[in-house]
Amino acid sequence: MDADAWTVIGTVVSVGGVGLSIWVLIVAKGAKRAADAANAAARKRNLVEELESAAQKIQQIGVLIQQEEWVAAQMRIDEVFASCRTTLARWPDHLSE
Fold it and tell me: Against a cut of 0.70, is the pTM above it?
């Protein structure tokens, strides 16, 4: 083969490489968007679990107050307070949703 043929082959391969690079970039961006969406969903699920746990503890506080278990009620109140404080620190951007 002469030099012109190698130049054509090199040009075709280079264009193919650029095309492949663009395709990989598009696929990677799509994967990043999917990962970000999955991460956001997991964070919201964790937030819901934290809030459900706090709601259960509040119900337990009601039972403890009815039974006049003041020390146990105070301990649960402290747990709910700590849980709420932690939730506010971890998810300040999701609480408006």
Answer: no
